[in-house]
Amino acid sequence: MRRLDQLLANLGYCSRREARDFLKKHAVTVKGQAVRDPSGKVSAADVRIDGEPLDHPDGLLLLLNKPLGLVCSHEEREGPRIYDLLPERWQARNPQVTSIGRLDKDTSGLILLTDQTEFVHKYTSPKHKVPKLYRATTDRDLSPDLIPLFAAGTLVLDGEDDPCAPAELRLDPSTPRTADLVLTEGKYHQVRRMFAATGATVLTLHRTRFGRLTLGKLAPGEFRSVHEDEI
Ligand code: URA
Fold first, then answer.
1. For a substitution probing ligand 1, which of 190, 202, 208 has the most ligand atoms within 8 Å of its CB?
2. Number of domains in the chain
């Protein structure tokens, strides 16, 4: 049970201060009874707003196909943000919707977003080794020697103390400058820096998988709601 004004504010309907006005403007019921007092304790499942159940009252977990050119930071001065793609009410949620890990501005593909802080901690923790699959294209042909190098778990990136965890590199001889790389961790700019450590520059980078989740038919900029069990 939560105070109604708190619940409405958490879900982005209005601020706590605006709750009394919100109740005047909208038909809000709890177990079918009209409510005017925002301070009463309610169960989210019992609340209807203008006849509709609450919008994702148990929290959001979204899979977004991140387009190129958007940032995962909340800072507007860093450029257009992935959060601007979301409905306004979701942007107003508190806790705020944030990405689980980050993709660079110049990286596209699968990213998870949530307002559930425990998911952010869980899935960015080094203890939680979720495999993430990236497709990279590079400025030069990739040698099969990179496969054991990345798999060894001994590659130390510039400025890091600890080596990268073993990573699986898959090369396709028909496209010698394209590779798939599976990482179970997420160091800053890790894919670009791993290739840079071998002398190659990553030209394009796209994430296609996070655990068992894939993009499916989502176009860039589109998102869908997912359940944690699907990861
Ligand atoms: N590695 C990178 O270099 N960039 C990303 O966006 C993700 C992984």
1. 190
2. 3
